[in-house]
Design a protein that fits this description.
In chain A, 54% of the residues lie in helices and 12% in strands. Chain A is built from four helices and two strands. A two-stranded antiparallel ribbon of chain A has the order 1-2. Chain A is elongated. Chain B is α+β, with helices and mostly antiparallel strands. Chain B folds into four domains: 71 residues, no CATH class; 224 residues, no CATH class; 301 residues, no CATH class; 192 residues, no CATH class. Chain B contains 26 helices and 24 strands. In chain B, strands 1, 2, 3, 4, 5, 6, 7, 8, 9, 10, 11, 12 and 13 form a 13-stranded mixed beta sheet that branches. Chain B has a six-stranded mixed β-barrel with strand order 16-17-22-19-21-20. In chain B, helix 11 runs parallel beside helix 14. The longest helix of chain B is centred in the first third of the chain and has 44 residues. The chains are: A mainly alpha (103), B alpha+beta (877).
Chain lengths: 103, 877
Amino acid sequence: MSQLTRKEEQVLLAIFHIGLDAYLIPIQAKIKLFTGKNYSVGTIYAPLNRLHLNGLLETYFKKQTGPNAGKPIKCYRLTEKGEMALQVLRDQQKMMWKGVSFS
Amino acid sequence: MIVNISINPQRVIQLFNRFLPKGDADQLVVQLESAFHDLSAHEGLRKANLWLFSEIIRSMPGLFTAAIYWRLSMFKNDIKSALRNVKKDRGVSVLNLLGLTIGIAAVLSILLFVQHELRYDNHHENADRIYRLNFYGVLNGNSQHTARACPPLAQLLVDEYPGVEAITKMRHYSSPVFRVESKIFSEERVFWVDPAFFDVFTVPFISGNPKNALLQPNQIVLTRSMAKKYFGDTDPVGRIIDADGQRDYIVSAVVEDVPPTSHFHFDFLCSLTEQRDANAPVWFLNDFYIYVLLDEGTNVLEMEADLAKTVGIHLDKFIKGAIGISFDEFIQSGGAFQYSMQPLLDIHLNSHLEFELEANGNVVYVYLFAAIAIAILLISCINFINLSTARSVNRAREIAVRKCVGSSRGLLIKQFLTETILLSLVAVIVASIIVKLTLPLINQIVQRDLIWQPLSVSFWLPGLLLFAILLGVVAGIYPALVLSSFKPAVIMQGRNPSGGRGQSLRRGMVIFQFFISIMLIIGALTIRKQVDFIQNSNLGFSKEQIVIIKRINDLGGQAETFKQTLLTDSNIQNAARSDMIMGDIFEAFAARAVPSEDEQTKLIWYLNVDEDFIDTYEIKLSDGRSFSSGQGQDRNSILINETAASVLGYEDAVGRHLINSFFEDNQFTIIGVIKDFHFESMHQPIRSLILLPIQQGGTGDFLSVRLSTMDIAGTLKNIEKTWKEFAPGHPFEFEFFNQHYSKIYEAEERTAQIFYSLSILAVCIANLGLFGLSTYMVERRIKEIGIRKTMGASFLSILYMLLQQFLVWIAIASVIACPVAYWGMEKWLRNFAYRCNLDSMLFITAIGIALIVAVLTVLNHALKAARSNPVKCLRYE
């Protein structure tokens, strides 16, 4: 499997942290919280989709209430494969960062 | 700032739909909407609007990349299926591609030629403001239209027309032998020009200064390649070149070589300043090529009209002196003496005057070839379309399945277009390579220096890409529309989805292909016939076995002795000196018969010859006698041809007199009349000609030697040996008369060759298409054939049935092609005063060729089908 990109990593982690009901808007907010970067929904859409296609994410639908009732929202959660990918990435980084210090 | 745009979700969906798969766009809108509602509930509508707006704007780049990603992955799939299709039907794909490639290669080379022809003389900075002065004169029914003018005209233009920015005179009349140390060359491309040459024309200097390069009489300017030839890598400026052993030229500058797209090419420019008559006020001395550079915005038509008047005023007394009438009377009597201004850019394609500097191109041929290029392209496109639609039966199932899994018609069309564009791209690339490889051959046929560098010339690459895409779309759109319209249900039932549709279109296209092929064949045959006619018709003299030795004036007074020495060789039958030879352009002077009834002055062409000339060329005398040998006897005697006799109004010409109208004391006695012979090309009727004896002391320039042996090489060696004895150090140059004379028909020869190649190509491409098409047509009828055979049809009747269809098509094509070709070729033949007839044999041959080739093409499949065992093809029913 190809290496995750930075943005994919951010998206995956954001979804992981949100847990339930992770869709575009909360993901966007989460990433902003973590990194300070204000991505547009369109920018997040592309990696999100790619991850879904590659089987790192799976989708489910959440029913809405209020004025938008009847229009379900597509939400994302990590698959096992997605968790694995994050794991691999973290291990790699751990290895690479070992003993690195800037003082 | 008030952003009070209420966002219409439908709009947004539409926008997103452009970029995203349908479901995703909906989903995105749903999510944005819910966030929007949250936001407007908490922070107010305005803020929510603002947020949404910025969100959409900022999303665009990301969405755009996503869209491209999707398009590309779809495209990848299209290409994959296109390649699979090509592989599956390898034979037909190769045929398809081959036809297209050959077609494109032909079209590219023709385009290259056309582009080259249209680019002539464009390299001059002020090309659009440069004009050449041409002369048109009529004298008692004889006319002369030449590319040359006279020195006083140049003076007049400078004096009286403020619109003239620069004017240059140029002369080209002899080919000196240049010597630098041990290097001796005879040079043909030497021009004598005045210093303003560099003001009018753009000539890039490598060294030296245009201001003073040709001011002194003994200065000479070389081109780069000539500098290399004579001086190698050393600096030539200031070096001395010896000309004819008579004078020394100092090299004053080196310039770039003249580009091939120029209507004249010089290797050397010498100074005109020294030549006596360069400024002579003689209006009849139309020996100079005069080019003017006009100011911007000068009205050329007005200037031309005004010039005619002014010339008349200046010419009045000359005309009076020469023929005794005033200029006005001269004009009223049907005479003409006028100069026209021809745009420089028109010269190469539109000018066919006497004394052109080089053989020019012809705009008619350029258009013709462009038309043929389009026709060939059409033929190849038609092949493509025909074969693709014919294949539709085989692809029907694929289309049905694609439709069942949800492919839309648009997607299918896109898929097919991808396929055809891919094929046409491949064809264009292969064709480019073919053009690159065959360019030397093409250059030989068209006699040009075409260059094919699609990668370095800016417009070719995008042009080619665009061309490939366009071609792909044009060739693919019809099959794409037809194939994508199939109904899956119909196909799955096993019925033929196309029904009878497309049959008549296909028929029409095949007929069109043959129409063009047959026309081209007729054209090629006619041109060949005319060229043969010209070459085999009786010229009035014998052109075989004659060798021309050039530059015998190098021998000085020994020319006659040299000739006599040669004649002692038993292999040499005869030899004659003359100042020109047939195939050159002869000069004319104005003469009139004395005494005659009307005393009218006529233009008569002349040639200086010695007493053996008519014997050497086996020209027949019809009356009187030839020049007698022995110098000086026949000083003022002349021979005239029959046309001249009738032009002058003589029934019995021998013993009559003729005077040169401009030099009254120049009186000649006619001693004989020779039979007419073609001293010019057969484009025009034979004109009046007189043969003058070479003046005393003159040598002539050429020695025509008639050989009476098969051992031409040996005899030539002997002649060269004799030459070396007589003129040590002078180059020995010779040419076979045949070759020299055939140069007048170079353009026709070339056209014939091009026509031949193109018609062969067209027939090949058309038949490639037919071959592919017949495969399918026979395949489709295989069951019918099986049934017919079981019912007792014979082998021959089935063969006939299969061929008949194609024969009918060709018959229809011939019926249309013949009259069109007849009309076109009649028009072309009108260029010739002496021409062959367009007989029916020619047309029958052309149709026969098309027929035979077509039958041979189809026969293979037809035979196979007719021989096939009906059990096999009916087995599944």
